[in-house]
Amino acid sequence: MKAFDAPPADGDRGFGLLAAQVDTAAAGAYNIASGQPVSPRDVTAAIAAEPGCGVPVRFGAREPQPGGPPGLVAGQPPQESTRMSGTTPLHLYRTMLYIRMAEERIAALYPEQEMRCPTHFSIGQEAIAAGVCAALGPRDYVLSAHRSHAHYLAKGGNLRAMMAELYGKDTGCARGKGGSMHLVDRSVGFLGCVPIVGSTIPIGVGAAFGARQRGETDRVTAIFFGDGAAETGVFHESINFAAVHRLPILFVCENNFYSVNTPMGPRQPEGRTITDIVRGHGLPAERADGQEVEPVAALAAAAIGRLRAGGGPEFLELETYRWLEHCGPASDIALGYRPAEEFEAWRRRDPVALHRDALRAAGVLDDALEAQLREDIGRVVDAAVAFAKDSPFPERSELLANVYPTQASR
Prior knowledge:
The chain is of the alpha/beta class. It contains 14 helices and 10 strands.
C-alpha cells in the first residue's frame, strides 16, 4: 500500500486521522486503489514506512465521486461524510495518545527555557478533546481558552506550527507572537484561544451568529472552557444570546474542579452544579464523566446531531482532572491545595490508560500495535520539535505587524 507524500509544512495536520482511524469492523476501511479491505496494522505499517504521510484509505461506503476516487491525504482533513468514522475506538485512542505524547515532550523541553510563554497542560483531560472533536466535521468551528493544546490537536491543528509558536518562531501559527495561549489554525476550523478567562465564549457565539447570518446552516461551533469561566458574567450573557437565537453551539465545560488553586467549595453553593445554572437559562444540559472517551464521543455526536437538525444550543459539563500545576510542567501536589489521595484517585482513571485497557480487552490493541503507534507518533513529535527549533525568529521589523493598526490601515 503506497502512501501519499504530504506537504512538509502540513505533515502533522489531522495526524490523529491517519493511521488508527481504521477499525475495519466498524468503519469498513479499504484501499482506494485496489478496493480491498485493510486492517489497522496495514495502515500503521504503511505510515511507519513513510512517516508523516497518509495512506489511500477511505472509511465507510464506497461512494464514487467526480474527479477521481475518494480518499484521505495527509495534511488535509477528511470530508464530513467520512469524519464520523473518526469515532472508532482505535482512532480515539490514537488521538489521545498523540495529545499526551506531544504534551509530555513540551513538558520535558520546557525547563530548557527556550519556550518563553506560559504553558497550560491538558494531561489527564484528553478524552474530552478527542471525543468531542471526533464528532465535528472539518467545516465546524472550535474555540478554546488558555488550556488549549488538546483541542487544537484534536481538531487537526498543525503540530509544527504549534511547536514553533511555543518557541516564539516566525513559522508559528501566530507568527511567534502569541505563544501557547494564542493557538490558531483556521484551515481546520480552529478559530483560536485567548488566555482571558471566559473571553472566547462570546467570540464563539459571535462566530456562530456570523455563520448563521451568512446562511451556513450546516456549521456547528464548539466552545471549550473550564469551570472557572462559568463564573464570569459574559458566560451568562453568551448562553442567553445563544438560546434566544437558537444558535448551533455546543458549550463544553471541562470541570476539573479547580480555578487555579481554588476548589469548587469556596466558589459555589453546596449542591448546585454548573449544569443546574445552565438549565435555568433554558438550554438542554448534561453532566457526565469526562474520563472515558467513547461515552464522551457518543454524547457529543448525539448533541451535534441535534444542533445540525436545528435544535438550538446545548451544554455538556464533563468532569475531569488535570495532573500538573495550573500553569507549567511541574506537579503542584506539594502545595497542599489538592489532597494527594484525590490526585491518585483521579490518576487511576487516566483516560488514555482506561481506553487502552478497553481496546486490549476487546482484542483491538496488542503490544506490537501499541509500540508501532508510539513510534509513529514519536517521529511526528520529533519532527515538529526539530522544525520549531530550526525555524527563525520574526524579524525586528515585524515586531508590531498585526499587533497594532498602522497609520495606513486606519
